[in-house]
Amino acid sequence: MRLFVAVNPPARAIQELADATSFLRELPAADRLRWSGTAGWHLTLAFLGDVPADEVPPLSEKLATVAAGHPELRLRLAGGGTFGDRVLWCGVKGETSALRRLADAVRDALDVTDDHPFHPHLTLARAGGRSRESGMRGMADAIKDFRGTEWEAGSIHLMRSETGFGPARYTAIGSWRLRP
Fold first, then answer.
1. 3-state DSSP assignment of residue 65
2. Active-site residue, selected from the candidate residues 70, 116, 121, 157
3. What is d(CA 175, CA 60) in angstroms, rounded to the nearest whole number?
4. pLDDT for 67-106, tens place per residue?
């Protein structure tokens, strides 16, 4: 199973972001991007890759321990940016230091090594094919003033990613409450 650990924003935060960014799909070069479906919008804490099914129970125990040791977080989706010309994202504001500590704890507990430091974000689109001029920087500028409503992140989720035709599909196979 292809797995990752995430915080999932509530439906109202997703809808608010979808409404605020819908115009991006009408901009020049938008058709050259692969847009993430709103049903899959999440904040990745750690990407685990392919994991055998028999390793899920020990991972679950470790995630339960991590969740019990970290408080609920007040977050909001806000602003936008890019990772080069490859990824367009919406940022995260609020208790981001605590979110970074949570991501670090998840990665440490699950022995995940990553060459990239944790950067709280929600992926909106990826460059398609070999396009060099994606128009993403202009799109990021267009949403730089977006500030969503604050929400409470109260759980972490072990997510299964299924890819194939169309957008990836994500299913929570385990969830753990953060400390109130």
1. helix
2. 121
3. 9
4. 999 999 999 999 999 999 899 999 999 999 999 999 999 9
| Domain ranges (residues) in the chain | 2-177
157 tagged catalytic: no
The 10 Å CB-count burial string (b at 16+, else e) for 18-42 is eebbeebeeeeebeebebbeeebbb
- Here the tokens at position 40 are 């899959």
pLDDT above 70: residue 22: yes
The pTM score is: 0.93
Any catalytic annotation for residue 121? yes
Q: CA nearest 32: which of 136, 162, 164?
A: 136
| Domain 2-177 homologous superfamily, CATH | Cyclic phosphodiesterase (3.90.1140.10)
In what helix (H) or strand (E) does residue 123 lie, and over which residues does it extend? strand 121-127
**Which residues, 6+ apart, have CB-to-CB distance to 174 below 8 Å?**
56, 60, 63, 157, 158
